[in-house]
Specification:
Layout: H1 28-47, H2 53-58, H3 66-73, H4 75-79, H5 83-93, E1 105-106, E2 110-111, H6 127-140, E3 158-163, H7 177-180, E4 184-189, H8 195-198, H9 200-215
Parallel strand pairs: 3-4
Antiparallel strand pairs: 1-2
Helix pairs in contact: 5-6
Length: about 220
């Protein structure tokens, strides 16, 4: 379409600096803001009588968030260290399955570490692309990926494309997005979590039409 796209990495991803672990000897001025934010959110949830995530999962209210308990436990950071292990992890998240049809990841349990080495290559991402992702993550490990980011008001136009069959993040969970994104456009595609890989044409058409509507541009200009 002729647009120039700038896609900066989130801190801790790609080729950015690594966020320090809480048990490291790095500069505490970098650690404290993340710890303070986490403590504040925890205290706010307590005062609002919000049940802990573990209770919500066990009670059946949010069974699809079982994987987040694993992500927060430190289990993956301890088990996934090498570049090859990171590649196996990514392969599982992109839907890699064993020869007998067992998934490497499911939303209720998380990553099945005992199956990672047995997974066939995912059908969603090429070998070359998975190698690239693994190389990028291997620079700093997966610690930064598992950190929470502060939620805030977004005061720019936003297009949200929901994947109707996404078990990890079902569209119903986005109902409150309008509170934080006043200029929000909602669309959906009939896919699971990896919509861009499953139905790239449908997703790109939605993006194209939204951009044309927002910019008034009907033709590509390189």
């Amino acid at each position: 379409m002729g647009f120039r796209v700038v896609a900066p990495d989130i801190i801790g991803f790609g080729q950015t600096v690594r966020q320090p672990s809480s048990d490291s000897n790095n500069d505490f001025s970098l650690i404290i803001p993340f710890k303070k934010t986490a403590d504040d959110v925890k205290e706010l949830a307590r005062q609002l009588n919000h049940a802990p995530l573990e209770e919500l999962v066990k009670s059946g209210k949010l069974p699809n968030f079982g994987y987040q308990i694993q992500l927060a436990s430190g289990q993956l950071e301890e088990a996934i260290q090498s570049r090859d292990q990171i590649r196996q992890l990514l392969n599982s998240l992109y839907g890699g399955m064993t020869a007998s049809g067992l998934p490497g990841f499911d939303v209720k349990t998380g990553v099945h570490l005992d199956r990672l080495a047995q997974l066939d290559h995912t059908k969603l991402v090429s070998e070359r692309m998975l190698d690239f992702y693994a190389d990028q993550y291997a620079r700093n490990g997966i610690h930064s990926t598992l950190n929470w980011l502060e939620r805030t008001m977004i005061d720019i136009p936003v297009l949200f494309i929901a994947a109707t069959k996404d078990e990890a993040l079902p569209p119903a969970m986005s109902q409150a997005m309008d509170k934080y994104i006043p200029d929000l456009t909602r669309k959906s595609v009939d896919t699971r979590h990896w919509a861009l890989w499953e139905k790239p044409e449908a997703v790109n058409l939605i993006i194209r039409e939204w951009l044309e509507d927002r910019t008034g541009q009907q033709k590509s200009h390189l």
